[in-house]
């Protein structure tokens, strides 16, 4: 399946109001981090589900950081986050970032941009 994105409105926003575009992207990064934090379960997680909270360290380490002009990174602050996300040879994946990004890619980003009020 091929997905085509019409980026004309987003490109116009960036060109005409870069500060507003940056403010919007910072808001998106914040909302993505919030969605990731809320996705964690409790107790032992099943393969394929987001991890359950044990100590809360991974969940508490979720953050975003600015990485240049109109660029934000969403990341965790623990060494084992990537192992949970992708799995290891001894443990099935417990993805907690990819599902949230996929939800934002499919639906939430367009809704956020519309609700932010910078484009019609």
Provide structural commentary.
- By secondary structure, this protein is mainly α.
- It has one domain (18-116).
- The protein is 51% helix and 10% strand.
- The protein is built from five helices and four strands.
- The strands form two sheets. It has a two-stranded parallel sheet.
- A hairpin with a 5-residue loop joins strand 3 (63-66) and strand 4 (72-75).
- The mean pLDDT is 90.
Give a quick set of tags describing it.
120 residues; two-stranded parallel ribbon; two-stranded antiparallel ribbon; 51% helix
Secondary structure: helix percent: 40-55%
Sheet of most strands: 2 strands, parallel
Choose one word for the global shape.
elongated
The strand line-up of the biggest sheet is: 1-2
Tally of individual domains: 1
Order of helices and strands: HHEEHEEHH
